[in-house]
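Reopening: DNA polymerase III subunit tau still failing for me.
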Amino acid sequence: MWQTIKGHDAIVEQFRQTLAAGRLATTYLFVGPEGIGKRTFAWRLAKALLCTVHDAAILNPCGRCESCVLADAGTHPDLLLVERQAGTKFLKVEQFIGPQERRNQEGLCHDISLRPMLGRRRVAIIDDADWFTPESANCLLKTLEEPPPGAVIILVGTSRSRQLPTILSRAQVVRFKPLPDDAVRDLILAGGLVQDPAAAEQLASRSQGSLALARQLVDEGLWQMRDRFVAQWQSGELDAPRLAREVDEFINAAGKEADARRQRFRQLLHLVAARLGESLRQLAAEGRLADATLAAIDRCLEAEEQLDRNANQSTLLESWIDDLASYQSPANVAGPRSGR
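Support: Ran it again with your exact input. Result attached.
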């Protein structure tokens, strides 16, 4: 464990070797599932790089110098953070080059170009790197191509496939793996998500190495909705209109925030696909036909992709359930991708 961060010791060692060899890159892209510590790692790495007492190569900030104290307080003048603003889906142009009336006099691209105030480096962390627009990415392009001396830029995203080519081609990718189940279990207990160690163990085993997913899956209503959905599917008589209304009510119960409702829909899609995957394995073991189940899994995964591409939620919900209902007719099984 490094700086209270579990599960990423190999990446720590990779950075130590890079620093010892004097080959620290100017731009890194951290990718991996949500909720595994990428942003926290970026922040602790920045703190170590900015520490004015200990050599950066050992990645062990002293915790006492002015730089460390300011980093811990979130007020370090050489540590810059850009993330999606409240109520917005994408990173905005103004966050990189300033508002119209102060173009190139404010924003990350301006701030990272200034001389460091406390040490030899300035470090910028760009969270939510999955949510660049072509315009905001282009604002960053010149800074990535000609980084200021001493600048280190760390972008935090979930996967290479969600990055724009202008970003991906100019960053060194660092892949973070899901956390081990025991690490997630300890974090669940420490965070008070559940109190019982056995329940924490079960939740960790479902979380796919992500504390963020564990937080979402602690909702028992989500599992109950999945079970009702799958039970209807397995009955062979899926009532599409009624089920669509029921799922719609369940999703909307997540709250007024669109992101919260989309997240609940995404998790239901994921859980239904996973449960159908278990059914598929059982059918295969019994030597029974599984074309309809395979088509349904494919449609669930497609729906997740469409949701990530900002598809209309109500339309997607209806088409997803309608397609699943149609697969229960043997004549329609051959076409799992609806194209809708």
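The chain has a mean pLDDT of 92. If you still see a failure, please send the error message rather than a screenshot.
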